[in-house]
Recover the amino acids of this structure.
């Protein structure tokens, strides 16, 4: 069975009424602003000055669209993701690939020929925002991640490699030997490949095998033309080249971050392009910040929360990373609780990544309903007994409240973490929470009286 | 350097600007041409950044040891 690709996902969105087609020609400078005004994912059929190109973006800007991409119910996103990563399927190498229908090398490998958009008012340049970046280390093997890339010249982009990552480690090892690191950048792939790239897999785990597990079929890869790497054969575009061995010396950013805030100028390496390959009728994928990035983070952080709860021997029922926390900084979970497990669950959830707020409820609370959650926090919480604060845990630079600016160059921020145990307190009978029931509710129907 | 690239350099010598401000002053230029000109300015290695993310070109040229 062949796995689904980027174009299958677009078709599924359209069938569900979640894709808007724009037929009039659009200037690349206006793509992002138009996507921000559309309620649906957006497909641009004509790009001014780029006759062979089309563009699509804001594809997973809502939980519903992500669920469409994953072929599951919205509430099943985390378990679906978790099941996929548990059963990796090795990728398969193929000789022919749609993404190599057009090959441009040397002087023809020109980034100005791609409709790279300017997205935000304070961005440092046009950005390639939705990337799948493949690299290889002689010891650790292949790595796949997702990194934003800022247009610099027809042959160069910046790349944000500030945060800790496996590819950053690969680059550092190459830099120590004063050699470039070859990379290949695939643009326009199925959300499963993007999710696998976002997942913090152990360094020896192939993200393409995780994507295969999510698809339930192997990802087909093709060898690149000018670098010793493989990329998804069904991608829309691939940029082949190398990260120059210059270290973190080139200005990059600001960029509209997934925290919904404009970031700062960073110092980063430079990517030099050797070859551009693409389909005959390529679609340029624009990952529309911040929502699309947020929702791509949600399954990863939610699955990590489920795993942490199970390691703590707590039985989860549902979990969600609310969009208000950029699907990253908050986890809300309902559990089948035994005495003391409200607190155990909080300790587990607060250990996940940079989660700084965790809320735990019993399994009678629908955690997707904010009113129910408020009700649980109102009547099941005593602040002096059910609130947990941990100081000095690992934080993230782009959260302004960690005051990263005061740290100096290279400093790593810390953050405080808050846990709220909104489960029924030990010693309080469950009956005290019995909900109102209306007499004769099932015996009469309002329609009969209208 | 192309006339468009030279124009961008003069704008950045006048005062620091966000990238989008430079784009806004050349909306009549096809995007691909603008990207090409911006690439020329980048390649000239004369750009500097301030803390607000603006680009600038010092009239007397970049100080020794300035970054890429």
């Amino acid at each position: 069975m062949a796995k689904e690709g980027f174009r299958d996902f677009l078709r599924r969105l359209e069938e569900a009424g979640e894709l808007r087609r724009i037929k009039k020609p659009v200037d690349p400078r206006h793509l992002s602003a138009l996507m921000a005004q559309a309620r649906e994912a957006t497909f641009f059929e004509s790009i001014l000055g780029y006759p062979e190109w089309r563009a699509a973006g804001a594809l997973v800007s809502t939980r519903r669209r992500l669920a469409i991409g994953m072929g599951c119910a919205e509430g099943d996103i985390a378990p679906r993701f978790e099941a996929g990563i548990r059963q990796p399927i090795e990728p398969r190498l193929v000789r022919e690939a749609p993404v190599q229908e057009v090959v441009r090398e040397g002087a023809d490998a020109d980034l100005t020929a791609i409709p790279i958009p300017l997205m935000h008012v304070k961005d440092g340049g046009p950005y390639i925002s939705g990337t799948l970046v493949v690299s290889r280390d002689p010891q650790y093997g292949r790595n796949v991640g997702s990194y934003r890339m800022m247009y610099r010249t027809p042959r160069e982009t910046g790349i944000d490699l500030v945060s800790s990552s496996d590819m950053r480690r690969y680059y550092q090892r190459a830099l120590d030997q004063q050699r470039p690191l070859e990379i290949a950048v695939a643009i326009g792939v199925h959300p499963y490949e993007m999710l696998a790239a976002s997942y913090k897999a152990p360094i020896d785990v192939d993200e393409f095998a995780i994507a295969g597990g999510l698809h339930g079929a192997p990802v087909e890869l093709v060898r690149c033309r000018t670098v010793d790497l493989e990329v998804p054969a069904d991608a829309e575009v691939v940029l082949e080249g190398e990260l120059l061995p210059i270290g973190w010396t080139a200005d990059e950013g600001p960029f509209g971050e997934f925290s919904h805030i404009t970031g700062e100028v960073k110092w980063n390496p430079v990517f030099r392009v050797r070859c551009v390959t693409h389909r005959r009728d390529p679609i340029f994928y624009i990952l529309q910040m911040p929502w699309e990035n947020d929702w791509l983070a949600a399954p990863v952080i939610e699955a990590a929360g489920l795993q942490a709860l199970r390691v703590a021997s707590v039985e989860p029922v549902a979990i969600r990373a609310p969009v208000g926390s950029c699907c990253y900084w908050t986890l809300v979970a309902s559990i089948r609780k035994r005495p003391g497990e409200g607190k155990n669950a909080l300790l587990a959830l607060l250990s996940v990544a940079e989660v700084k707020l965790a809320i735990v409820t019993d399994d009678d609370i629908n955690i997707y309903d904010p009113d129910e959650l408020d009700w649980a926090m109102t009547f099941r919480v005593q602040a002096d007994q059910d609130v947990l604060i941990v100081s000095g845990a690992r934080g993230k630079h782009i959260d302004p409240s960690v005051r990263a600016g005061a740290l100096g160059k290279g400093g790593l921020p810390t953050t405080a973490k808050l846990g709220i145990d909104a489960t029924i307190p030990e010693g309080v009978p469950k009956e005290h929470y019995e909900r109102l029931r209306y007499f004769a509710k099932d015996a009469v129907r309002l329609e009969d009286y209208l | 350097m192309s006339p468009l690239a030279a124009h961008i350099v003069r704008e950045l010598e006048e005062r620091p600007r966000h990238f989008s401000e430079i784009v806004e002053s050349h909306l009549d230029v096809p995007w691909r041409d603008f990207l090409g000109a911006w690439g020329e300015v980048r390649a000239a290695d004369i750009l500097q950044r301030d803390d607000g993310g603006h680009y600038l070109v010092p009239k007397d040229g970049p100080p020794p040891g300035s970054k890429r």
Q: What stands out?
A: The first strand of chain B starts at residue 48 and ends at 49.
